[in-house]
TrEMBL record:
<dbReference type="InterPro" id="IPR036412">
    <property type="entry name" value="HAD-like_sf"/>
</dbReference>
<dbReference type="InterPro" id="IPR006356">
    <property type="entry name" value="HAD-SF_hydro_IIA_hyp3"/>
</dbReference>
<dbReference type="Pfam" id="PF13242">
    <property type="entry name" value="Hydrolase_like"/>
</dbReference>
<dbReference type="GO" id="GO:0016791">
    <property type="term" value="F:phosphatase activity"/>
</dbReference>
<keyword id="KW-0378">Hydrolase</keyword>
<dbReference type="GO" id="GO:0005737">
    <property type="term" value="C:cytoplasm"/>
</dbReference>
<dbReference type="InterPro" id="IPR006357">
    <property type="entry name" value="HAD-SF_hydro_IIA"/>
</dbReference>
<protein>
    <submittedName>
        <fullName>TIGR01459 family HAD-type hydrolase</fullName>
    </submittedName>
</protein>
<dbReference type="InterPro" id="IPR023214">
    <property type="entry name" value="HAD_sf"/>
</dbReference>
<dbReference type="Pfam" id="PF13344">
    <property type="entry name" value="Hydrolase_6"/>
</dbReference>
């Protein structure tokens, strides 16, 4: 294992790369504002013939994610397509018509079932749970849901996690996501199905969309993932067999503050398996 240095620009890393699979939250924006240099980097890469698929654990369908990106000033020309964990969760709901669903999440995520034949029900009557997040992620943590999860386990309900992230940035704060509740439920012995990174289906969907745009099947050796989470982005890329550029400005920013390079021991401690490269923030 070698020492890891910080790369200065994306252009150093994309020679021989046909497709970039980029995370959104923490790489392209922080939930409150977009990162212009990151958007410019992806747009420039596309202008050189590359394909950019945004791959996100947002518990909403791609069109909803696109509307949010537009509000934050991220131009449509920044990327070719979006794949979200919300899309994959909606496929699960659509494949289970007539079954009663208990939905756990904030009202803003109601697009997870909108337009589908989904029968909403209280947990006492539900056949399964779809979790898109906490009811109030500004004040709550997963521990606030321990009692609810114990009751769900008693009923042996499967929990569908529409966002495997534990935390994300919102401005300069970290807030809890659906993944925190899902991990609690799994610790309590409940069954969880995860959609989104680091799990394989979201990468397979992204690669299929990239192949459509390139007009041929994509060689994984010519793909670069970009993300800011060890648990989801780096692990997901490694297990899918693609390289990863790790952006340190996101949820792990405090761990990298003041570092110019990482020695092998630090690499092992922080990553386990190292990324292809580090970058403080995405820029061309």
């Amino acid at each position: 294992m070698t020492t890891l240095h910080f790369a200065e620009s994306l252009r150093e890393l994309v020679g021989g790369v046909d497709v970039v699979l980029s995370d959104i939250w923490g790489v392209v924006h922080n939930g409150l504002e977009s990162f212009p240099e990151a958007c410019e980097a992806l747009h420039t890469y596309r202008s050189h013939g590359g394909t950019v698929i945004l791959i996100t654990n947002a518990p909403r369908p791609a069109d909803s994610v696109q509307r949010q990106l537009r509000k934050l000033g991220v131009a449509d020309e920044t990327y070719d397509a979006i794949v979200s964990s919300g899309d994959l969760t909606r496929l699960y709901v659509a494949d289970h018509p007539g079954r009663k669903m208990f939905w756990l999440g904030p009202e803003r995520d109601n697009s997870i079932y909108r337009g589908l034949d989904a029968m909403l029900a209280p947990m006492e009557e539900a056949d399964y749970i779809v979790c898109t997040g906490l009811y109030d992620d500004e004040t709550e943590t997963a521990e606030d849901y321990r009692g609810m999860m114990l009751k769900a386990r008693e009923r042996k309900l499967t929990l569908i996690c529409a966002n495997p992230d534990i935390v994300v940035e919102r401005g300069d704060r970290l807030i809890y996501c659906a993944g925190a509740i899902a991990e609690l439920y799994r610790e309590l012995g409940g069954e969880v199905i995860f959609y989104g990174k680091p799990h394989r289906p979201i990468y397979e969907r992204a690669m299929a969309l990239a192949g459509e745009r390139q007009g041929h099947q994509i060689d994984r050796r010519r793909v670069l993932a970009i993300g800011d989470s060890v648990r989801t982005d780096l692990t997901g890329a490694r297990e899918f067999g693609i390289d990863c550029l790790f952006v340190t400005r996101g949820i792990h920013s405090e761990e990298f503050e003041g570092l110019d390079q990482l020695d092998p021991a630090s690499v092992a401690e922080l990553f386990g398996h190292p990324p292809k490269a580090l970058m403080r923030e995405l820029k061309w």
